[in-house]
Amino acid sequence: MADIELVIKIPEGLKNDFELEQWTALSCMEMKNALEKATPLPKGHGKIIDATFALEAKITKDNIGVSERTKGWNEACQAIYENASAIIEADKESEE
Fold first, then answer.
1. Which of 19, 36, 38, 57 could form a disulfide bond with 6, CB atoms 3.0-4.6 angstroms apart?
2. Quick one: which H or E segment has residue 49?
3. pLDDT tens digit string along 22-57?
4. Backbone dihedral angles phi then psi of residue 8, each to the nearest 5 degrees
């Protein structure tokens, strides 16, 4: 059976309960509800980064020609992507 990557939001206490193997009927129901609300990541997704990092990178564009500006912008975006810490690594198994 294939793996599924999910993004879920759970209370910290629930995470602690599961780490300490203190499962209760209530904690299992909370986890079930969280899993039902989870966001599946698409197969073959790229590296997921913090968008705030990218927005705060303070890239400036100068008034040179359009092609040079576009090239500079693309290089700046590439630098942001390469320097941003991954929140979730790329799905390399599906990147073929």
1. 38
2. strand 48-49
3. 888 988 999 999 999 998 988 888 888 777 766 665
4. -125, 155
